[in-house]
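Worked example 2:
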Amino acid sequence: FEEHEGPVRSLCFAPFGHHALSLGEDGTARLWDEEGEARVFGKKEANLCAASFSADGQHLILGDEDGRVFL
């Protein structure tokens, strides 16, 4: 998880094990595939602090420190 600019705050795995989602202190969420490639969500101003996959693994739910939820 060296691509984050700072420590990782949270890590969760997709229900079927094909992806992982990490949240960094840099305010970004990174969706990792089995190859180790990451797609970046969020921006430094977002202050993301919580994340989860939907039960079917098709959607991401992100939360920030201001209580906002993003789907």
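The mean pLDDT is 85. The CA atoms of residues 23 and 29 lie 5 Å apart.
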